[in-house]
Amino acid sequence: GEKEGKQSFLRQMDDEKEKIRLKDLDTPQNPFYNERAAGFKREIDSLSSSVKDWQKEFKEKTGRAPSLQDMKEDPHLAQVLDNLKSSKRNLKTSIQRFRIN
Prior knowledge:
about 0% strand, about 100 residues, single chain, about 85% helix, 4 helices
């Protein structure tokens, strides 16, 4: 109800603040700035926060922290975890390539 609306609004505000903070960190004036890596980093942060939200909700519902099995059994979260894994892999590759060039 109202509480959820307020929480999602606050989460949006936090996201906006985070975007601004990241933008300041990721200024392209930096000669080592890597646009692709920065994109993957933002993706990873966003996916990580949805995993954390899911874990928190799970704990509130069940009274215990979710196991890896619990997380894999949730179809939506399993997808998020896959995306997170590939984003991390992409970030690593992107940074390695960037160092070589």
